[in-house]
Design goal:
The complex is a heterodimer of chains A (about 325) and B (about 300). With about 325 residues, chain A is an all-alpha fold. Chain A contains 12 helices and no strands. Classes of the chains: A mainly alpha (about 325), B mainly alpha (about 300).
Chain lengths: ~325, ~300
């Protein structure tokens, strides 16, 4: 049957080589995996994810147990007299194993990277779709609101929200994680809504939308099946950069002392705790700093790779 | 153009009003008061009442807000509840330091980013290009306080080139300025490179070459001139980023600027200071973005400012 024959079958019939058919997304995945930096980034992200999931198995000690008499130990390879064979990366100022704390802290970073980003996109995309599609007063309200939020420096807004509520009962839920989720979501969703709205505005005048409308597609179907899939590429790229953005937000908050509630381990918090004694035991600070750098770089490489893969024209 | 400028300037006021409203609402919604920060030794209720009367906190919330807005219009930002000093004094003391740090960092960032971006575009896909792109990626990705840790470790602890913290002598200023400049310069270098590459491929550049102009003339007066317009538009956001980014650097290096004061007030929930500094920060960001929009219109005659 003619309809069932693909280019592939036809090529086989004619006994010629044809490029394997790929969908738009298949093409993007192919381009992403050809990008070495992006693949390296994906591997690091995947490894960090595994470490976070299997933290209780991997960590040699409880991350908040203080080993008395073994504080301020340096990593084994330094060969100084302040080492203890039990603690490969040494201990912090009150004798907690740094390796175990680093492993458990990866959980915080991974959760903070993905959960608020999911909330931000769920909310932002919905509002942006509705505002862009229907226009009218919702649209006006959204635009005025984003104008104000844009004048408010992102991180200033974040830190004010977190600082205001961190002493409340809500701020103590899940060691302060829930407050950080909510704060990142409150600060971030407007940007996504604005981006989605812009995409929808330019897409909804296009012929394929007109065509779908003319055969009687409902507004929900138009938005869900026609507008959203076509607006997805820039949204995915933005999401890929929102994840490290959220990780950075939490790390900075914890570094300043208003993020994750101690004694729960977070990389930013470890830097905050170790910094006063930086010159005596720099490793307690350098280790979490290295972890943050590695994860941030990995996510950025993935984001850059996704951007180039999804839209080669956007390449900078 | 004049009409547009005036209209944009007038829009600054409602925006600042809403920033003040949001900050004020958060301050009021937050539990606890600045007078009971020490949980082991809560002050007597009558003491708290006296303090509340003194700071006008016993009045209804909307009255407090109206009073605040009226006072801000008179440039009176109230008293710090923790340090019993006028907020204006605290900001006035820290601001010159922050401004100096920010301007130094911006100049350094431009001095590094522009040549780097131009060279990598002219030598696209060579080793120089890849190296500078790599540094640009690292510079935009690694958080400033993490970068500061590596800098202190290598340049202060190991090489003992610079003092770790403090402010005053030129040696003190090197590390904070360099680290603050790093993110902005990486960002500006990327934009410069992208914008140069775009300009190089334009028809007028081909025309200039084909009529036999020397390569230098083509690059300087045809490519560069047009490539720098988009760069000029991001200098504003970059400057705004430097202003808000400086509070982490100031806290880290104990620089006695407005940013460190801001973090201190956040930790102590000293709301008059938080609100005063937030308003000032927001004001600078709005002005930075506004000046860019205006300069853009002047630089590029193709841009018509929307009515």
């Amino acid at each position: 049957m003619a309809t069932a024959s693909t280019t592939q079958d036809r090529a086989a019939e004619l006994n010629v080589l044809a490029r394997k058919q790929r969908s738009l997304w298949g093409d993007a995945v192919y381009r992403l995996f050809r990008n070495k930096a992006a693949v390296a980034g994906l591997i690091v992200v995947f490894a960090a994810f595994l470490v976070a999931v299997f933290a209780p198995v991997l960590a040699p000690y409880d991350p908040i147990v203080q080993h008395s008499g073994a504080g301020q130990m340096e990593p084994l390879w330094t060969g100084s007299k302040y080492i203890d064979p039990r603690f490969v990366l040494g201990t912090d100022f009150i004798g907690r194993d740094i390796l175990s704390r680093l492993i458990y802290a990866s959980r915080i970073s991974m959760i903070v990277g993905f959960v608020p980003t999911a909330i931000v996109f769920g909310l932002g995309v919905t509002v942006g779709l509705l505002a862009g599609f229907f226009g009218g007063w919702t649209d006006q309200l959204l635009m005025r609101f984003t104008d104000i939020i844009y004048a408010f420096p992102d991180f200033l807004f974040l830190i004010i929200i977190v600082a205001s509520f961190r002493t409340s009962a809500f701020g103590k839920i899940m060691d302060g994680l829930l407050l950080i989720f909510v704060a990142i979501a409150v600060v971030g969703w407007v940007g996504v809504a604005r981006l989605t709205r812009g995409q929808v505005l330019s897409l909804k005048e296009r012929e394929f939308v007109e065509a779908a409308r003319s055969v009687g597609a409902t507004p929900v179907r138009l938005m869900w099946k026609h507008l959203l899939p076509n607006a997805l590429a820039p949204l995915i790229v933005t999401a890929a950069f929102a994840v490290p953005g959220a990780i950075l937000g939490e790390a900075t908050l914890s570094f300043l002392g208003v993020g994750i509630v101690p004694p729960t381990a977070s990389w930013g918090g470890m830097i905050n705790e170790g910094f006063p004694l930086f010159s005596t035991n720099p490793w307690a600070v350098l280790m979490p700093a290295l972890c943050i750098s590695l994860v941030m770089l990995a996510f950025t490489f993935v984001g850059d790779g996704l951007r180039d893969a999804l839209d080669p024209r956007m390449k900078t | 153009m004049l009409k547009y400028t005036i209209r944009r300037l007038l829009l600054v006021i409602p925006t600042l009003f809403f920033v003040a409203l949001i900050t004020f609402a958060l301050a009021k919604a937050a539990p606890g008061s600045p007078f009971d920060r020490n949980p082991d030794k809560p002050p007597k209720q009558e003491v708290i009442d006296r303090w509340n009367r003194f700071y006008g906190l016993d009045k209804p919330v909307h009255e407090q807000f109206i009073m605040y807005v009226i006072n801000v219009a008179k440039l009176d930002f109230g008293l710090s509840v923790v340090r019993q000093r006028p907020v204006v004094d605290i900001i006035g003391q820290g601001f010159p330091v922050t401004a100096q740090l920010g301007i130094q960092a911006l100049l350094l960032a431009l001095a590094v980013a522009l040549p780097l971006g131009v060279i990598s575009a002219l030598k696209q896909n060579t080793a120089i290009d890849y190296i500078s792109l790599f540094f640009a990626t690292v510079g935009t990705t690694i958080p400033s306080f993490v970068m500061a840790i590596f800098f202190i470790y290598f340049f202060a602890l190991n090489l003992k080139l610079f003092p770790i913290t403090g402010w005053g002598t030129p040696q003190h200023m090197v590390m904070p300025t360099v680290i603050l400049a790093m993110g902005a310069s990486a960002f500006l270098a990327r934009i410069t490179r992208a914008s140069m590459l775009e300009a190089i491929r334009q028809d007028y550049v081909r025309t200039a070459r084909s009529k036999g102009l020397r390569e230098q003339v083509v690059v300087v007066s045809h490519v560069l001139k047009n490539a720098l317009i988009p760069v000029a538009t991001v200098v504003g956001p970059a400057a705004a980023g430097l202003i808000t980014g400086s509070f982490i650097i100031e806290t880290f290096f104990s620089v006695p600027g407005m940013g460190r004061e801001y973090v201190r007030s956040i930790l102590a929930l000293d709301y008059p200071v938080i609100m005063g500094t937030t308003l000032l920060y927001a004001f600078f960001i709005i002005i930075a973005n506004l000046s860019v929009d205006l300069v853009y219109g002047m630089l590029d005659p193709r841009i018509k400012v929307a009515k």
